């Protein structure tokens, strides 16, 4: 019996955990997406920093090769001048520079292989992150649809019916208002027609125009000047 109770307790715990997950699946998914997005951003920043470091190594390699070539030119000139001592010192310096050059080249070769692998990992993670976020949007839409399909309470159905009735009433009122405006226009056709003729440029304007007002002001100004003279 005790074993049975333990089994039931474990089963109830698992069921409760599953129910909790199901009820909060979108919330959990959102947090997981935030965490994976942050991890992906850190990976991109690390990749960018590594690429910047590789470019610095490339510049250092170029500087080492330039110094080695310059010393070699100078050593040849010293040999021509009979300065074997200087040429020997230059040869030692060139040997050190060439060793450094070879070490940098080997390191950059290994780094290039590793960088290619990291780029592939980041590219794959970027693709998967984009798919994950698209999937989250689809899941949210599907969850909304699922909740709408769940049987509503009677008062919810009544609310929807009332809302539909309100919308129908609103449309009726709008149609009545439009009919009233049309009737008013029909009652006073002369006024409406006069306005239409005025807009078409036939007949005098029923409203003062800016040009007419300006002419009136000019006349007053000229009269004032004549009176002052």
Note the topology:
Layout lengths: L1 H22 L1 H56 L3 H66 L4 H34 L1 H12 L9 H19 L1
Please explain how this structure is put together.
This protein has helices at residues 2-23, 25-80, 84-149, 154-187, 189-200, 210-228. The protein has 229 residues and is mostly helical. Helix 2 runs antiparallel to helix 3 (84-149). The longest helix is centred in the middle third of the chain and has 66 residues, at 84-149. The relative contact order is 0.05. The mean pLDDT is 78.
* Mean model confidence by pLDDT: 78
Radius of gyration: 44 Å
User: Which outline best applies?
Assistant: flat
Q: What is the CATH level 1 assignment of the largest domain?
A: Mainly Alpha
Stretches where pLDDT is under 50 for at least 5 consecutive residues are none
Using DSSP, what is the number of strands? 0
Number of domains: 2
Would you kindly provide a brief summary of this structure?
This protein has helices at residues 2-23, 25-80, 84-149, 154-187, 189-200, 210-228. By secondary structure, the protein is mostly helical. The protein has two domains: 2-150, Helix Hairpins, CATH 1.10.287; 168-228, no CATH class.
